[in-house]
Amino acid sequence: MIPKTFECLPYLPRREVVRSMDFLEILDLSLSSTFIKNAAKSLRLSFSELKWLISSPGHFVIHLIPTNPNEPKIIFKLAQNSSTKFFSGCLNGKKCRITRSGSLFTVKCGPSLFEKIDLLDDLTSTILEIFTVEKFHVKSNLYTDFLFKHSRKFETFSLSCQEVLTVKQMRMLMEGIEVDIFKLESYKPMEFSETFEINHRETHLPFANWLISQPLLSIKCEKLVIGSIEHKPKLQPIHFVNFVSNWMSGGMDNLKFFELNFKNDRVVRYELREEVYKSLERLGYMEADMPETFLREDGKRALVEIHEPRFHIKLI
Predict the structure, then answer these.
(1) So what's the pLDDT on residue 214?
(2) What sign results for the dihedral spanned by CA atoms 153, 158, 160, 164?
(3) Which of 8, 34, 114, 171 is the most buried (most CB within 10 A)?
């Protein structure tokens, strides 16, 4: 007897049918058929990268990058309306409305921010149930915990905060995940009485007054960039002197580059430069023939310089 439908096929033939499909077909059909989704799961197919792109209140998107560069990028977005008709689907065991146009999937959502976050979470769960992903990326203007259910390791993680982060959130970002290039921006000052480990290989952070004034002797990143800052409360040159002196004497041995960006305070920049140079002279690091180049205690050459509006130290 010849099976009439896909569901009537034995398990192994189902797998072979799904294996013959491209990724778009597998995703499309898996969102409406449990049988196809289960067959696809057993094949352990993979994507190279998954990117969450969140710009609240209205932009919630996932990009899936195939391993084969000749295959098209697949995009999922949440929207209240679409130019094509929505059909019934299922995300993470929950009913949804979804449509597809080429490699773009649109999932119907309501106006609620909480609903959008839940939908993006369910969408991510469904994708990762079917496929494996090698690398994860985040670009968001909203801190949301659901990301960390799916991965604690990211190639890039860029967060532009609209609200002040809590200590718990900051500790998760700095210590609870592993990131190759981490960037945090904030439109409001973030003052913490606690200190955090800074372990991401390349780290970009705002507001130096809550960083440099704290003991950073255990940081393990290779590159630390502190972005545009206000100098209230006024930054004390001694904080920079202690930081640079510790690095020059061999502390923070992973750190190869440090940069601080001021906004528009020439007085602070001038005071900082003079204090740092004088202190390094007193400590014996300065070379007479190259006033901005120093020899660390481990024998590595380092450059300390200020190019308005930036102060930086680096190995050369």
Answers:
(1) 56
(2) positive
(3) 171
Q: What is the DSSP string of 137-162?
A: EEEESS--TTHHHH-SEEEEEEEEES
Residue type, 196: F
How many C-beta neighbours within 10 Å does residue 294 have? 23
Please write the tens of the pLDDT for every residue from 157-214. 999 987 888 889 988 998 999 999 999 987 666 667 777 888 899 999 876 555 655 5
pLDDT in tens, 13-47: 767 776 767 888 888 888 888 877 888 887 788 89
| Domain-wise residue ranges, the chain | 152-316
Secondary element (H or E) of residue 98: strand 94-101
Question: Is residue 114 a contact partner of residue 138, using CB atoms and an 8 Å limit?
Answer: no
| 186: number of Cβ within 10 Å | 17
Within 8 A by CB and 6+ apart from 74, the residues are 23, 24, 27, 63, 64, 66, 103, 105
Q: Grade residue 290 by pLDDT with cuts at 50, 70 and 90.
A: very low
Distance CA 161, CA 210 (A): 16
